Amino acid sequence: MRMTRWVAAGSLSLALIGCVRFDGIGHQSTPVTVPVAVVDATFNAWPVRAWWTDYRDPMLNALITSALAESPDIRGAEGRLRAVQALTGFANSTLLPQVNAGFSSLWQRYSEHSLVPESLLGGRASDNSLAFNLNYEVDLFGKNHALRAAFMALTQSDQLNMQVARLAVSSAVARAYFKLGEACAQVDVLEATMSQRRRILELVKARVALGLDSTVELRQAEGALPQTQEALENLAEEVSLLRNTLNRLTLMPLEKTNQIHPRLTTIAPPQLPANIPADLIGHRPDVQAAKWQVEALLHGVDYVRAQFYPSVNLSAFAGFGAIGIGNLLTGGSHIYGINPAVTLPIFDAGRLRAELKFVNASTDFAIEHYNINVLDAMNEVINTVTSIRALAKRKAAQAQAQAAAEQAYSTALERFQAGLTGYLTVLSTETAVLEERRVATSLTARALELDVELKRALGGGADIAALPATK
Predict the structure, then answer these.
(1) Which of 128, 148, 238, 385 could share a disulfide with 91, CB 3.0–4.6 Å?
(2) What's the pLDDT at 187?
(3) Residue 31's CATH number
(4) Would you say 213 and 201 are in contact if contact means Cβ atoms under 8 Å apart?
(5) Cis peptide upstream of residue 340 (ω within 30 degrees of 0)
């Protein structure tokens, strides 16, 4: 009890007279507040963690499952998390006493003028010690607790960064898959067009033989085939590149990804709820990771500030000590002791103040990084929802335009076959139909890609509530 009072009194006295101070040093930035909106009960739990299963596409499920299991990005995030968890364990150890056992033996000749028993003056002997040693830093000013809290916050941040990596990988696979589906659908459209143009060429040849058409119409019909073939070759390259992308993302065998042919018409169309709670962006793992990064640095500020105060250490030992190895374990060789120590920085050439300024500046940077993440998240959600709603109107208008183009092409083809119109009319209406079919395919893929983007922008079902709170 007397020792505790002495240590506390000594620490307080040194704290009052200390020369190194942190006056005037602090961070300046303030985190923005995530807006709160009325929660739509039908939307509050969306998107789910495995959001890609909403499309009910077994191939997409298999691709994303493989990517999540094999991605180097996710494995890298896991490695970083394990490293921070190890540092957290180190920080926990600073709060507890450290006990070790040691043996030492020093053989020497003693000076004839040493402070040793007269029998050893000028003699030779070994000085031996076998003891347990205890060291404990009394964390009066919270330095080690702040260090532990900082590493715990970093652990939270890196757990969330793992979810950021998972979301980035899964959304990249889904986007590439839907783009591949779009390219494959365009190939299907052009292949159907190629078959139709071959039939028309045969019909033109027959009409030329009958003298109903000239060689001009024949050359036009013949020229349409290589044009279509050129477009098909361009699409074949795009399909191959997208399959290579899926191979890179999923690490599946190339021969397997080369067989992937998504059918956009069989994929469940996305459904957008009427209201989107603005506070859902707070569920984004990157926003939460940035928030925990700020939390870690705030604890880092506390850690550095605590170093301006006295450092209190207690050490003790107990064991055996003797001159001469033969006497080491005898009853009279018992030794024990305790050594309290208090230190306070008086002059450090500005080291601690510079360190505190650095940590506060880093905190300002982290806070502004968090603010940027929040603002970007809000902007991404607003832009994506705007695009989704605009796309719905475009699809309605395009459906009407395609129906009219299909009817005009069908009528022109019938009149051409009956000899009532020329090939130029058929070619003109066919071009319009081909364009509308291409646009319809692009809009279908665009709807799926925007749905992926919205789910990513809202955090992809990141499980924020499952994270343990810091203590």
Answers:
(1) 148
(2) 92
(3) 1.20.1600.10
(4) no
(5) no
